[in-house]
Amino acid sequence: MTTINAKYLTKLYKKEYALKDCNIDVRNGEFLVIMGQSGCGKTTLLKILAGVEKTTSGELYLDGVIADSIPLKDRDISLVFQEYVLYPNMTVYENVAVALEGKMDSQQIYDRVMPVLSKLGLDCAMNQRPRTLSGGQQQRVALAKAIVKQSRLILLDEPMSNVSPLQRVEYCQLLLQLKRQLPETTFVYVTHNSSEALTLADRIAVMKDGRVEYCCDRKNFLYNFSNVDALEVFSGNVTKVLGTWHNGFVSDEPISISKRVLDTCRATDGQQLVAISNKMDNGNYYLFDQDGRAVSGAVNEVCVSARLDGNILRVGNQEIALDEQFCSRLLKKHGDVTMQFRADKLSKVRLPNSFRLLLDVVYNDGDILGVSWQGTTFYMLRRTNLQPGEQIYMYALTEDVDLFDGQRITAHYPINQCSVPMKVVDYGRRIVKILGYKYAVSSDVTGKTRALLSVDSLRLAKKSDKNTIKVREVLDEDILGEQKIVYCIVDGVDGYVAVLTKSENLCLEQNIRLCLNAEKVSLS
User: Fold this and answer.
1) Distance between CA 164 and CA 135 in Å, rounded?
2) How does pLDDT run across 132-191, given as a tens digit for each residue?
3) What angle, rounded to 10 degrees, do the helices at 165-181 and 106-119 form?
4) Model pTM score
5) Helices (H) then strands (E): counts for the chain
6) 290 exposed, middle or buried (CB, 10 Å; 0-12, 13-18, 19+)?
7) pLDDT tens by residue, 67-105
8) Are strands 249-250 and 240-245 parallel, antiparallel or unpaired?
9) From CA 341, how far away is CA 402, in angstroms rounded?
């Protein structure tokens, strides 16, 4: 089996982001297709999954094990590039068999290679050299090299970019056949061709600007775009019509909108909307708000108004207890917030560190279930026999919740937990020494030996600043909105320090220094 869990992946090339806080999960045995325009980061993501590129920051897990701890030779991964990597002086058979040499004897290699060549229609060309083959045949040889290794994970980077339309159809059919014959093998396939995606995929992910914008199963993919960007990447040129919601979409020109879109619309009366055509769905129009967010169909992220009071999150008349780990990631502890959780991760079974939602069913068309919770209505992909008027309990993991106050206020990792040794230099003037520098503080220093460096007590240093602290390594950047948290290693500090700065300030792979505001340091 091979499952992939990629969290917060970031990759820099010469101070430019190829991936930026990218998250994606791949299930065991599924065929995931990643779509996106050139330069969106899909090939970079594939290379990182294969282990031929390293991330600048972020976490990658293969079967639950951090990928950095798995040597490349032990990852059991095959990668098929869009450019055929074939040895010109070898025959088709030799090109395929070379991956097995040294691992089994010649008869075992023959017994492994020939069924694969036959399956791919290459047995009659086994003694030919690559230059005598067509583009489609060469691509099948590259695929055969991946198959004979019997890898648990096969990654394909636009393998049909150099073949004719007819060969493309044949290749798609071949991959579908291969998928059925290797049910335990996980495939990740990169393309910019929407027809390939709809033919091959179990699920389709759309990337833009180094992030996964939208991911959905093939059956429901065309009908539940989460934002305008995902629809435009998939459909290409689109037609836009401005209008207003008044118990329906009102515009100056008549357009075709499906009943499902109208029935699941969450717009308020009088709200300005943008209708966008989806050529892959017979030209039907889909509805988005003026910020480009979908206002109809199923959603993954559900947003609800809430009140934060320390370790208690109040949503309507329900109180949700937040554990210590969750609270350690909060940038603020009190006030009105927007709570966001994943509808696609709701479970009917109680899980550890989860909270319960009593959902009132308001809609069910067999594929999309509409429910209301604490006054908020949302729609999710869920096949069930529940009917409007019925209720159901479901559970959400606390760790999957994010809170927003203009920007995200739940950090990826704990903050405000960095404690360093402190020495009192002058009790009368309250002068202390922290990380090698002297600072005046206003709080009582009697009996105090340690300083807690909060996220507010540190900032990026300017050239004119004195007593600056050298950063040995920048571990990660956590982009919240207009601001981001930078996690750093500093000499003399156990663990890491967290610094809040503007999102535009590039810190990864840079030499940076920090300034300490002693007035915001807590002493203990």
Assistant:
1) 8
2) 988 778 878 888 888 888 788 999 998 877 677 777 787 788 888 888 888 889 999 999
3) 120
4) 0.87
5) 10, 34
6) exposed
7) 888 887 778 888 887 767 788 899 989 988 988 888 888
8) antiparallel
9) 6
Cα–Cα distances (Å) from 450 to 234, 422, 457, 499, in that order, read 55, 5, 14, 19
Distances, alpha carbon 58 to alpha carbons 5, 18, 123, 295, in Å:
11, 13, 44, 31
Whether residue 233 contacts residue 206, with contact meaning beta carbons closer than 8 Å, is answered with yes
Q: In 419-431, which positions are buried (b, 16+ CB within 10 angstroms) versus exposed (e)?
A: ebebebeeeeebb
3-state class (DSSP) for residue 444: coil
Beta-strand runs (E) in 134-265: 153-157, 186-191, 203-208, 211-217, 240-245, 249-250
Residue carrying the six token digits 């390293």: 54
H or E segment and range at residue 297: none
Q: Cα–Cα distance between 192 and 201 in angstroms, integer?
A: 13
End-to-end CA separation in angstroms for the chain? 49
For 501, other C-beta atoms within 10 Å of its C-beta total: 17
- Number of residues assigned to the chain: 524
- The answer to whether 26 and 34 are in contact (CB under 8 A) is no
Residue among 353, 318, 313, 315 nearest 333 (CA): 313
| Residue 491 CB partners (closer than 8 Å, separation 6+) | 470, 472
Full DSSP string of 111-131: HHHHHHHHHTT-GGGTTS-GG
DSSP state of 268: P
State the maximum Cα–Cα separation within the chain, in Å, rounded to a whole number. Answer: 92
Instruction: Strands of 255-333 (E only): list them.
Output: 272-278, 284-289, 301-309, 312-315, 318-321
**List of long-range contacts for 221-225, beta carbons under 8 Å, 24+ apart:** 222/198, 222/278, 222/280, 222/281, 223/258, 223/260, 223/261, 223/281, 223/297, 224/294, 224/297, 224/298, 224/299, 224/368, 224/381, 225/278, 225/286, 225/294, 225/297
